[in-house]
Design a protein that fits this description.
alpha+beta; 6-stranded mixed beta sheet; 9 helices; single chain
C-alpha cells in the first residue's frame, strides 16, 4: 500500500488555506511512494471555518475530481503530521487510496446497513468504521454501541465533533444516496456519519488514557442511576474521603480535591470479552495505567444524606471504580507506549537492509517511508489534552512523530473519543492504515 497524500494549512481566508493544502497534496501525488489515484478524502477543519464548510467541500471536490468520497468533521483543534492547530482557522486533508469495494461512506441519508450483504452496498460487509458524531444527538453513547453491532468486528474509532459554533460533519459517497432520500450536500449537522471499511482494509488501533489512578480499585456494591452509594460495602462518600485523605470539616480544601478528581469506571463484562477472565483486578495495567475499557467520568456532586457520589455516567452494581486525576507525565508515557506497540506489531521479524535502515532512522528527521508499513494515520484526541497538557504547542503530535515515525496523519480534537463500542473522555485514539493483516 502506498503512502496517503496529506496536506494542511492555516490562513484567515479558507481559499488560501485550501490552496496551500492542495499544493502539498499534488506534490506528494507526483512522488513514486505516494498514492496517485486516491478516491477517499478525510477532511478536518477547525471551528473557525465551520460556517464555510459547504464551500470548502465543494472547492476541494472540484479541485480533486478523482476523489469521489469524502468524510470528516470539525474540531476546536485539528491535527496533522507533527502539528496541532488550536484556536486558529485551519484545515487538514488526507487522501486514501483503497479498493472501491472495501469502504462505504455513510450518513443520515445513506445509513450503514444493519444486515450484511443486503444493504445499499450490494454485498459490502463492514468490519470496522471511522465515525464522527454530534454530541447533541440524544443517546449518542447507545447509538455508538448499536452501530458497533453493525460491523463484523464491533470496532469503531473516531470522536464527537467539537465546536464553539456549528458542529458539522462531512459525508458524501460516490455510490450515491439511498433511493427516496433526495440529494445530499455532503455537509451535515446532528447524528452520525463516517466511513465503514471492509475486511480488506487492514487497521491497527490503540487507545491511550490521560488519567492515572490515585487510589485502589473498588467494586460498586450499590448504586442508583448515576449515584454510587456503596463501594466494597462501605458508604461511597466515606471511601472517597479516605482515598483522597480529606475531611468535610475543611470544606474548601475538600472541594478543591474533589474538583481535581475524576472516576474511572469499568464493566467487568467488557474485560471478560477481551479475555481477562471475570474482569476482577484487570482494570489497571501492570504499568499503573487504566486499561482500554476504563471510562473516565466527572464527579458531578456529593450526596451527604445517602453518603453517595454522583458521577456523569449510569452506574450499576458490579462495576469496578477507581478515583483518578489527569496526569501529563502519565499521558505522555502512555502515548509513547501505544506508538511502540503499533510499531512492534507492524515490523516484520525478518527485514531487508533498506527496510531496516528506514526503521532505524532518527524519527524526528525521517521522511514518511512505505517501509514502516503505515500508509496513513488518524488521531482523535480529547480537546482537553492538546497543547498545554503535554507541555507546549503541538507537543502531543510531536510525541507521536518521535515515537511512531513521520507518517501521513490527520485528525481532530474531540468532545469525546470513540473506540470499540465506547465513548471515552481524556483519551487519544490512534489508528493506522497498514499494508499487512488487520489487527
Amino acid at each position: 500500500m502506498k503512502l496517503f497524500p496529506c496536506g494542511h494549512a492555516t490562513h484567515p481566508q479558507w481559499p488560501m488555506a485550501a490552496g496551500l493544502a492542495l499544493a502539498q497534496l499534488r506534490a506528494q501525488m507526483a512522488l513514486r511512494d505516494y498514492a496517485s489515484t486516491p478516491t477517499l478524502g478525510l477532511l478536518y477543519i477547525t471551528d473557525h471555518y465551520a460556517a464555510q464548510a459547504q464551500d470548502i467541500l465543494e472547492h476541494l471536490s472540484a479541485e480533486l475530481p478523482e476523489v469521489t468520497d469524502w468524510a470528516g468533521t470539525v474540531g476546536v483543534g485539528i491535527a496533522a503530521s507533527n502539528v496541532e492547530y488550536f484556536d486558529e482557522p485551519a484545515l487538514a486533508v488526507m487522501l486514501c487510496e483503497l479498493p472501491a469495494d472495501q469502504y462505504r461512506v455513510f450518513s443520515g441519508v445513506a445509513p450503514l446497513s444493519s444486515t450484511f450483504g443486503t444493504g445499499p452496498g450490494m454485498g459490502f460487509e463492514p468490519h470496522t468504521a471511522l465515525i464522527h458524531a454530534d454530541a447533541r444527538t440524544p443517546d449518542v453513547a447507545d447509538l455508538i454501541a448499536e452501530l458497533a453491532q453493525r460491523t463484523a468486528t464491533g470496532y469503531l474509532f473516531g470522536g464527537l465533533a467539537s465546536s464553539r459554533g456549528q458542529a458539522v460533519q462531512f459525508a458524501i459517497g460516490g455510490n450515491g444516496n439511498i433511493k427516496g432520500q433526495g440529494a445530499a450536500s455532503g455537509v451535515f449537522s446532528g447524528g452520525m456519519s463516517g466511513v465503514a471499511f471492509g475486511e480488506g482494509v487492514a487497521l491497527v488501533s490503540r487507545v491511550t488514557q490521560g488519567c492515572l489512578p490515585v487510589a485502589p480499585v473498588h467494586e460498586v456494591t450499590a448504586a442508583e442511576g448515576n449515584v454510587i452509594t456503596r463501594l466494597d460495602g462501605e458508604p461511597a462518600l466515606d471511601v472517597l474521603l479516605r482515598d483522597l485523605a480529606i475531611t468535610l470539616d475543611e470544606p474548601q480544601a475538600a472541594m478543591a480535591a474533589v474538583r481535581a478528581t475524576l472516576v474511572g469506571l469499568t464493566d467487568p463484562a467488557d474485560l471478560a470479552d477481551l479475555g481477562h477472565g471475570d474482569g476482577a483486578g484487570d482494570m489497571v495495567s501492570r504499568t499503573g495505567n487504566f486499561g482500554v475499557d476504563t471510562l473516565v467520568r466527572h464527579i458531578i456532586g456529593l450526596d451527604p444524606s445517602r453518603r453517595g457520589i454522583a458521577v456523569a455516567h449510569q452506574v450499576s452494581p458490579g462495576m469496578r471504580m477507581a478515583f483518578c486525576q489527569r496526569n501529563a507525565q502519565a499521558a505522555r508515557a502512555d502515548l509513547i507506549r501505544i506508538c511502540a506497540e503499533i510499531r512492534e506489531e507492524l515490523e516484520p521479524e525478518e527485514m531487508s537492509l533498506p527496510v531496516a535502515a528506514a526503521l532505524a532512522a532518527p524519527e524526528a528527521q525521517a521522511a514518511p517511508n512505505p517501509a514502516r508499513r503505515i500508509a496513513g494515520a488518524v488521531y482523535v484526541s480529547c480537546a482537553g489534552r492538546g497543547g498545554p497538557h503535554f507541555g507546549g504547542p503541538s507537543a502531543e503530535m510531536q510525541i507521536v512523530r518521535r515515537a511512531l515515525g513521520d507518517v501521513p496523519l490527520v485528525g481532530f480534537f474531540a468532545g469525546g473519543e470513540i473506540a470499540r463500542h465506547h465513548l471515552y473522555g481524556y483519551t487519544g485514539v490512534l489508528t493506522v492504515f497498514t499494508g499487512g493483516a488487520a489487527a
